Amino acid sequence: MNPPETETIELLPVSGTPRQLFVLLHDAGGAATDMLELGNLLGGAFAEAAVLMPQGLTGPHADAAGATAAGLDDAEALAARVEALAAFVRAQQQRFDILQSDTALAGFGAGASLALALSDAHDGLAGRLLAFGGGYQIWPARAPALTTLHLLHGQNDPVVPLARTRSDFEHLMELGADATLDVAAKLGHELHPALMDQAVTRLQTCVPLRHWKSV
Hints:
Blueprint: E1 8-11, E2 20-25, H1 36-45, E3 49-54, H2 67-70, H3 75-96, E4 103-108, H4 110-121, E5 128-132, E6 148-154, H5 162-175, E7 179-184, H6 193-205, H7 209-214
Parallel strand pairs: 2-3, 2-4, 4-5, 5-6, 6-7
Antiparallel strand pairs: 1-3
C-alpha cells in the first residue's frame, strides 16, 4: 500500500493486472491534479499501465550553487527527497509486481529535476524517464546504464531556461547516455499537449540503446 503520508491519484486498468507503471511528479508549488492530463494520455496510450500521481514528493527547484543562499533544497535535502521517491516507487513496484524495466517516471519542472536526480542515484529503478521543463540540480558523474532519458522543453521557458537543459543534454551525450531532447517552439514553462504527445511518441518508438547493445 501507499505510505499514509503520500496522497496519490491512481488511474488503473479497467480490467486485469497492471503490466506497466508510470509515476508522475508535479512541479514545485503544484498539485497531483496538475498531472491528470498527462496521466489520462498515458493511460489511453498504454491500456495495461497503472498511472500514479503522488502529492507532495516534489520540493523546490534550485541549482546546487544557489540552493543554500536561496533557502531552497541543498544537496542533502535533495538526497532525502530522492530516497523518499525511491521508496515510493519500490513500494508500487512490489504492490503491482512490476519490473523496474517496465516502470517509467515523468516529471514537470521541479518534478522533472527530482526524477533526474533519482535516475542518477538509482540507475535502473525506472527504465524510462520523461523530464518536462526541468533539469539537473547536480550534474551526474556517469551516465545511467539502465534508464533512457527523454528531455522535453519549451523554447521560451523562463523558469528553467532552454540553454540550461541543452547543457544538461550535451553533458549526457559526453557521458554516453541514452537520451533524447525535444524542444517545442514558442512554448514557455508548461506541460503543453505538443510536448505530451511527443513524449508518448518517444515511449512508443524509441528502442532503448541498451537493447541494441545486447544484440
